Amino acid sequence: MATQRRTILNWLLGTGFIASIISFLYPAFKFMNPPTVPEAAVNEVSAGRVADLEPNSGKIIRFGSKPVLLIRLSQTEWRAFSAVCTHLNCTVQYQPTGRQIWCACHNGLYNLNGQVVSGPPPRPLEEYAVRLRGDEVIIARRA
Amino acid sequence: MNLLTAIKRIRSWLDERLGLEDIKSFLVHKTVPRHSATLWYYFGGITLFLFVIQVLTGILLLLYYRPTVSEAYESVQFIMTRVQFGWLVRSIHSWSANLMIFTAFVHMFSVVFLRSFRRPREVVWLSGIAMLGLALGFGFSGYLLPWNTISYFATKVGTDMAASMPGIGYYVARFLRGGDDVGGATLTRFFGFHVAVLPGFMTVLLLVHLVLVQKFGISSPPKIEQKYQRRGEPIPAMKFFPNFFLRELMAWYATLGVLGSLAAIFPWELGTKADPFAPAPAGIRPEWYFLAPFYTLKLLPSHVWWGIEGELIGLAGFALLAFFWAALPFWAINRQGVERSRLVTGVGVALLAYLASFSALGYWR
Questions:
Q1: Can you spell out the DSSP letters for B247-291?
Q2: 3-class secondary structure, B270
Q3: Whole-angstrom Cα distance, residue B158 to residue B166?
Q4: Nearest CA of chain B to the CA of A83: how many Å?
Q5: pTM above 0.80, yes or no
Q6: pLDDT band at A41 (very low <50, low <70, confident <90, very high)
Q7: Which of B338, B360, B332 lies closest to B112 in space, CA to CA?
Q8: Which helix (H) or strand (E) holds A116?
Q9: Residue B32, phi then psi, degrees to nearest 5
Q10: Element (H or E) spanning A97, and its range?
């Protein structure tokens, strides 16, 4: 009888102790997990005026919180891609000499359709639509 | 009462309360094996010495550093240009971090080649490996703190590697970054890891490591043990205090000389302030101790087998390598209890060759 009572007490103390540890750790783990901050959905941004970018050059544009690479290939031809390399998240750049997109971190190369040419990137770059509104260059998400 | 009597009284008072005589007796009786490989025993102490320098210079830097995106770079710039000897303190902090990781690697490989991980020292080895991991964590978290271009992209790449882990990767990366992307929250977190979390773990592991080294004593290589066993003689030894201690002290002085020279002749650069909307600059590469994995990832093709991404294969390879390396004491002996000496030496040499060659290639190419 005494042994049984001791077993029950041990079990209660043990489970109580484990439960209290969990009750301490759970809020701590939850606290460490960063809250999701909702962002206003951005569907298009102005990338400045046509004259701001020379033909055969590129620049990074802020698209919400993400960088987008805007490329002016010629007087009339424009392209825009996500500037986030699909390999390990570095920011890519336009190379005017080779007319390709290059990631300096691990030497990934993409062509002007955003397709991987060489190097470790596993996927193509996401493409954005570019249109001109008068003298203004507009970058927009593709539907 | 003259000065000598006063000192004696103070000593006696302290002895009664702290047991100073016991400590002295322990140090006097402690010995260190003396043979052709004794030189390698100094590297553990040198690593500890560099860690102490890290702590001291880190405390000094804390007096001025501000861990926010708008102030981090400027506060480091302020330390380097306006604070007296600020450039030297920061340079010593950065150089000693690099030297500490280098000496930790030397210590680790010397433990492997001298077979100091053998039974009953498996936990000493495991605590050492965990400390090396923490030292790399110190390097990774501290690298971001100046908030410059190189450190920003290094953190982007490093945390994205964590994100590539199947299943838990997204959560681990979010935990590390404090959000979906590297930003102000990441800087605050990394600062917290660097000055509070990692030092806490390091202190505990360091105590475990040192207590166990005291408990088991310093190991001698099997060949030397066998040589003296055949002769029926004990392995020659020197007293830890003062003989080994004074030699170690000289090694610390030499280290301090190297450290001071490097810090003064090649002051640690600050670079340009991080701009999340600028492309990664050409020639970007991580600190030398991450160069081997960096170059490996650079070489891996986008897809390897059955459409599996090369990056994932690389990361799985690194994880497996780290696991088998940490488990070294357990596979270094076969079921009959005989040491797989050639295998251990072969794996040690291969790993060393991989790290050295890929680090060199990562630096030059």
A1: HHHHHHHHHHHHHHHHHHHSPPP--PBP-TTSPPPTT----GGGH
A2: coil
A3: 16
A4: 8
A5: yes
A6: confident
A7: B332
A8: strand A116-118
A9: -125, 130
A10: none
Q: How far is CA B169 from the centre of its chain?
A: 25
Nearest-neighbour CA in chain A from B190: distance (Å): 13
CA gap B253, B42 in Å, rounded: 12
Report the distance separating Cα B327 and Cα A30, nearest Å.
Answer: 32
Tell me yes or no: is domain B37-272 CATH 1.20.810.10: yes
B7, B19, B23, B29 from B16: Cα distances, Å: 14, 6, 12, 21
Tokens 């105590």, residue located: B207
Domain boundaries, chain B: 37-272, 291-365
Structure tokens at A61: 């544009």
Q: Please give chain B's pLDDT, 365 residues, in tens.
A: 689 999 999 999 999 999 988 888 888 889 999 999 999 999 999 999 999 999 999 999 999 999 999 999 999 999 999 999 999 999 999 999 999 999 999 999 999 999 999 999 999 999 999 999 999 999 999 999 999 999 999 999 999 999 988 889 999 999 999 999 999 999 999 999 999 999 999 999 999 999 999 999 999 999 999 999 999 999 999 999 889 999 999 999 999 999 999 999 999 999 999 999 999 998 888 999 999 999 999 898 888 877 788 888 999 999 999 999 999 999 998 888 788 999 999 999 999 999 999 999 999 87
Distance of CA A15 to the CA centre of its chain: 44
Is-contact B94 B87, C-beta < 8 A?
no
Q: Strand locations in B180-234, DSSP E?
A: none
Q: Report the C-alpha gap between A60 and A80 in whole angstroms.
A: 9
Residues of chain B contacting residue A103, judged by C-beta atoms under 8 Å apart: 280
Looking up tokens 């639509």 gives A129
Q: Could you please report the per-residue DSSP string of B117-160?
A: T-TT-HHHHHHHHHHHHHHHHHHHHHHHTT-BHHHHHHHHHHHH
CB-based contact (8 Å) between B192 and chain A? no
Write out chain B residues lying below 8 Å of A29, CB-based. none
A37 — contact with chain B (CB < 8 Å)?
yes
Radius of gyration in angstroms for the set of CA atoms belonging to chain B, rounded to a whole number: 23
Length reported for chain B? 365
Tokens linked to B196: 């509070």
Instruction: Give one word for A107, left, alpha or beta, with left for phi > 0 and alpha for psi -120 to 50.
Output: left
